[in-house]
Amino acid sequence: MSFEVQSYGSWSTVVERSTSVLVRPGAPLQLQSISISFALQVPKNSKKGVLRSVLILTSRVRGAPIEASRAVITSLVPEKTENFDCNIRLFPHKEYTFEVHGNDVHIFGEFIGIGPAQDFPKTEIRKILRAPHREHIGQSSFIRPVYSTSVAAEEDSTVANSSDGARKRRKEWKAGTV
Prior knowledge:
By secondary structure, the protein is mostly beta strands. The chain is built from two helices and ten strands. The chain has a domain at 2-42 and 49-129: Sandwich (Jelly Rolls), CATH 2.60.120.340.
């Protein structure tokens, strides 16, 4: 989803946990406040009950193929640090991507351009869906041990894992029946 807004007055957006928000300011934009959402989603595997939301900002020159810089802006925790007052400026010749790990985050700011509002191009805001985070997957059961033809491998009985099937294959290999 992409839309444009006039580059004057107040500005706000919501960065949701499954999306990134790309911002191309038409005028200098000053971020003033970042807050966590009122409705918190509790993760199923939450350790120690921490519901931290980490906001990451990536910036690059418009049209450049490589990200120039990436920084953690804030880490918000319910009932401890729910709001973050800041003074971060975004400039028109760059594009910025906001990404959150944790719960949704609200960003508030104000355009600080000098001159009539009609002189500034519109600010483009684009929400980008991110791929879901995959949980750590352990070793697959169909991975087979690799046998070496070196003498050291023949002498070492622990080349493969210790499962019964691997021991049987190792004995067959040493006997030359494979």
